[in-house]
Amino acid sequence: MPKIKLDFSNKLITWYLHNKRDLPWRNTANPYHIWLSEIMLQQTRVLQGLPYYLKFIEAYPKVEDLATATEEEVLKNWQGLGYYSRARNLHATAKWISEEFNGVFPNNYQDLLKLKGVGDYTASAIASISFNQPEAVVDGNVYRVLSRVFGISTPINIGPGQKEFKKLAQQLIDTTQPGIYNQAIMEFGARYCVPQNPDCPNCIFNDSCIAFQQKKVAELPVKIKGKPVKKRYFNYLVILSENERTMLQQRLGKGIWHKLYEFPLIETSEEITLAVLKKLPQFQDFSKKLNIENISLFNEKPVVHKLSHQHLYTRFWIVETSEASESTIPISDVKNYAVPVLIENFVSEFFENY
After folding, report:
1. What CATH topology corresponds to 230-350?
2. How confident is the model at residue 4 (pLDDT cuts 50, 70, 90)?
3. Which of 166, 274, 287, 330 has the CA that lies 20 to 30 A from 196?
4. What sign for the dihedral angle of Cα 133, 138, 144, 148?
5. What 3-state DSSP class applies to 341?
6. Which residues lie below 8 Å from residue 1, measured CB to CB, with a gap of 6+?
């Protein structure tokens, strides 16, 4: 392993130093900035996450600034990035660090692991980049590189596989410059050893990559199939009153989009017609509160919003009324609420002239 380790890390770091992207979190060892970037880049591509990172750094230059913000403000700034539990955990952790540690981040892997929303990967990234500790990161990019180069077919989404890859990653890390090594292997996986059709003939590891030599690149890494995707059918009731008011409700139950706002929702087991909608008990209870004059369907074809384990087939019903109840808000205020990107896209299109 020693020679393989040296060759692997040297090649990787040399490639990285010549090919790395100039990203703002690579020009600092500030643990707040590293933590912020790593949380944002979970389940998110760099190009999508970068504008949010810059927005948060500007709005909250220090962890204490993030801590003093309201959760609703943080969710609004996070809007469109998805996986909103990350934003809630981010805010909770900022308050914890600010109140319990006077704004100073823990400086070691074990204590970083105790922070809300911080797992092995994020703790390893902060520990290595900010504090030069030899803690190897293992994310999707790392799984892909290691499984292919070393020909490992153990599934990456089961306990034994995760332990095997973590052990190998720990053996390979360059202990003299762990932060650079970790960023190098993640960058290589993200930009070169990509999921589909990597340029293997010109790869720096093509003389030793087992997957390339055995023509198994497309087969690795192995991942056991999870639960089948669930289909859900959302019917949003978009209230429009004569004095340009509408209605939003906050999602308070467990599940997706916790604490975000949306239009009144009726979920059904399949697509429905207007006649069926009117007969639903939820709609009848709702209609008792309003003097409904007209109902029309905005989109005949459902908007399909794909989440990790569920697909939402969504239609927006425009409900026109002459009365505005106390629970309504001016249409012009909708943009001030934190909403899922599904709702944001509809609002941008439908309310663009308000």
Report:
1. Nucleoside Triphosphate Pyrophosphohydrolase (3.90.79)
2. low
3. 166
4. positive
5. helix
6. 171
pLDDT tens for residues 39-66?
A: 999 888 899 999 999 999 999 999 999 9
Q: Do the beta carbons of residue 138 and residue 145 sit within 8 Å?
A: no
Select which of 38, 135, 187, 262 is catalytic. Answer: 38
Name, in order, each residue with C-beta under 8 angstroms of 226's C-beta and a sequence gap of 6 or more.
157, 309
Q: Maximum Cα–Cα distance for the chain, whole Å?
A: 78
- Please tell me the class of the 2-219 domain: mainly alpha
**38 catalytic residue (yes or no):** yes
Task: Look at the pTM and tell me if it is higher than 0.85.
Answer: no
Tens digits of residue pLDDT in 147-203: 999 999 999 988 899 999 999 999 999 999 999 999 999 999 999 999 999 999 999
Q: Which two tokens stand for residue 235?
A: 């019917």
- Between CA 101 and CA 173 the distance in angstroms is 30
- Return d(Cα 354, Cα 348) in angstroms, integer: 10
Is residue 255 over pLDDT 50? Answer: yes
What is the SS3 assignment for 151? Answer: coil
| 109 touches 127 (CB < 8 A) | yes
Where helices occur in the chain by DSSP H, the ranges are 2-19, 31-40, 46-59, 63-68, 71-78, 85-100, 109-112, 120-131, 140-149, 159-172, 178-191, 210-213, 274-279, 281-287, 341-350
What's the Cα-to-Cα distance from 296 to each of 255, 284, 330, rounded to whole Å? 29, 16, 21
DSSP 281: H
Q: What does the block give as tokens for 74? A: 């943080």
**Number of other residues whose CB lies within 10 A of the CB of residue 19:** 12
